[in-house]
Amino acid sequence: MTNKTNRQFRLKFRLRDLLLSQKFLWLIAWLLGIATVLSVLGLVMLSGWFITMAGVAGVLAVGTHTFNYLLPSALIRGFAIIRTFARYGDLMVSHHAVFGLLRDLRVKFFAHWARLPPSLRLQKGDSSETMQRLVKDIDTLDEFVLRVLSPLIIAATAVVVLSLMVYLMIPTAWIAILHMGLAFVIALMTLYKGIALAKRERELAVLRKSNLINTLPALTALITWGRWQDSVRKFSEHDERHHKLTVASLCHRRNAQALIQLGIALAVVMLLLMAGRIFEQGITPFTLANLNSHATLNPAIVLALTLGVFGLMEIISALVSEPLAYGRSVNAKTRINELMGADVTSQKQPIDGSPTLILKDLSIKMPSAIMSVDGICATLTPSTPTLIMGASGAGKSTLLATMAGEIPRINGEILVQASGLCDDIDKVDFGRGFGFLGQNVDIFDQSLADNLRLGKPSATDDELWAVLDKVGLLDWAKSQPKGLNTPLGEYGMAISGGQGRRVALTRLLLSPKKVLLLDEPFAGLDSTTRHKVWQSLTDMQKSGEIGVLAIATHQVWQGMGDVNMLYVG
Which long-range CB contacts under 8 A does 201-205 form with residues at least 24 apart? Predict the structure, then answer.
């Protein structure tokens, strides 16, 4: 990874970064949106002016063609055509930009998440919460562009253009322009105040989800114990809080829209008052000579400006149609930054040869455990298998998970020594030479061959058959009608738990391992299969295909040969 790329990952994600990947498309979308709004305003204003002037012309010049009906008619039709095509183009381009935006964000964040050490990923929360953030929060970010930034740019442009027109035609109507600006500011303040409501909304959603997830699996037990009413009460409390939040959001929007309407109404009143004062001083009357003059202030122009100002009401109100949009985007950005806040830029040292693992005064503890296991000291060599022994709950699995980097250690060191190198295990790059089989194995809804080739994509069928033989699955696989193409089902539901663990072990054994950590690989195996798997592992270690071999197990039998025993607890 280059330094430039590393620096990009260390920087906090900002909302304005949403525009970078699709900035050209967003620019086109905004131009089309502005064209749509201006054409709508032009259509309304010109139509009002045209109807008024046509009526005046009908009075002044009956039976004549002094008033030019054709030009305004053509302009009205032109505005209508621009509105239709600009609106269609805006929708198409903006949706294309949004889909590209979400694609780029998911690729970026998922790639960064995958680079995090397993221990850091565990610290960030459970997998369901993580997926909620990486999927739901990323989807939420599009609201910033679609519901906040785009309407903001369009509304600001409309306010500026209409204010300029009012000022040019009625310079004394600056107070009307001030009220239009005030309505726009009210919309901005509403979006900002929505941050707090959006935060409450998110917190409540997490509580409701947690309560539901924790309650449903234990529903039968709760009914049996007579505690179901407590859960019902919690649901009722959360629903009541959600109802209050919904009402607060609705009131927030309605109050903002009412203030915006008031601001626009005052702008119209001020506009008419200033125009009235000008008319009191005398205006050029309608005559056949000036009927087609568009630069002279007259009631028709005032009407057009009035209709345009009224049109701003809907444009500015669109900003607060979803008052929590900005708040949701800000909260989503914050949560993603919290999730992606770890620095993954440290360079790892590759190793050559077979390593030795040295545990020095190691203290370990599961994140949810009360007690820790302290003072673990051991040396794991590539010449002798290490059996990690201890009572149930003593910390055998925790030790393996800590060595694998999935659980952060409390204190102590795990050193890797090989070919003059002696460094912390977190700073060593094993590549594909590190293997870990935990208590939970991952079997995908694919064929047996596809599941195995996750460990070595280039593996031939002969290699697969050979390694299946090492774990005692050869006869079973050949007995299946589809052989290597046998589907294993979702989460390995088509096979037994013991077969699933051996499939996962087979996947690890397809390529040489400098370090191989196995948690209860013999669980659920009969004596014959257990001996066969053990023999395969020790033979591979003797041949150099496996370096350090550490196995957490309860099962020890005579004939295992020379082993190193590490007791935990």
Answer: 201/245, 201/249, 201/324, 201/327, 201/328, 202/328, 202/331, 204/238, 204/241, 204/242, 204/245
What is the rounded distance in angstroms from the CA atom of residue 165 to the CA atom of residue 161? 6
Q: Which two tokens stand for residue 156?
A: 């600001």
Superfamily grouping for domain 353-567: P-loop containing nucleotide triphosphate hydrolases (3.40.50.300)
Q: Which residue has the higher pLDDT, 27 or 52?
A: 27
Helices of type H across 216-298: 219-225, 228-280
One-letter identity of residue 551: I
Every domain of the chain with CATH number 1.20.1560.10 lies at: 12-285+297-339
What pLDDT score was predicted for residue 44? 87
Q: How many whole angstroms separate alpha carbon 123 and alpha carbon 103?
A: 26
Please determine, for residue 301, whether its predicted confidence score (pLDDT) is greater than 90: no
Give residue 520's pLDDT. Answer: 87
pLDDT at 9: 41
The answer to whether 568 and 390 are in contact (CB under 8 A) is yes
The tokens describing 141, both together, are 């970010």
C-alpha dist (Å) from residue 240 to 49, 295, 328:
52, 60, 21
Question: Cβ contacts of residue 240 below 8 Å, gap of 6+?
Answer: none
Q: What is the location of CATH 3.40.50.300 in the chain?
A: 353-567
Is the pLDDT at 185 greater than 90? The verdict is: yes
Q: Of 354, 481, 498, nearest to 506 (Cα)? A: 498
Q: How confident is the model at residue 4 (pLDDT cuts 50, 70, 90)?
A: very low
pLDDT bin (cut points 50, 70, 90) of residue 265 is very high
- Please report the sign of the dihedral spanned by the C-alpha atoms of residue 214, residue 220, residue 226, residue 232: positive
Q: State mean pLDDT over 338-343.
A: 63
The pLDDT value recorded for residue 179 is: 92
Mean pLDDT over residues 30-52, rounded? Answer: 86
Tokens of 483: 């052989």
Q: Which amino acid is at 192?
A: Y
How far, in Å, CA of 266 to CA of 309, rounded? 10
What percent of the chain clears pLDDT 70, i.e. is strictly above it? 82
- Six-digit token string for 345: 């830029």
Residues 445-448: contacts with CB under 8 Å, at least 24 apart: 445/487, 445/488, 445/489, 445/490, 445/491, 446/487, 446/488, 447/482, 447/484, 447/485, 447/486, 447/487, 447/488, 448/477, 448/480, 448/483, 448/484, 448/485, 448/486, 448/487, 448/488, 448/503
Contacts (Cβ under 8 Å, ≥6 apart) of 231: 211, 215, 222
Q: What is the CATH number of domain 12-285+297-339?
A: 1.20.1560.10
Q: For residue 161, what pLDDT is reported?
A: 92
Distance set, CA 304 to CA 298, 301, 426, 431 (Å): 10, 5, 71, 72
What backbone phi and psi angles, to 5 degrees, belong to 417? -120, 120
Give residue-wise pLDDT tens across range 528-553: 888 888 888 888 888 888 888 998 88
* Section 428-440 average pLDDT: 82
Alpha-carbon gap, residue 393 to 452, rounded angstroms: 31
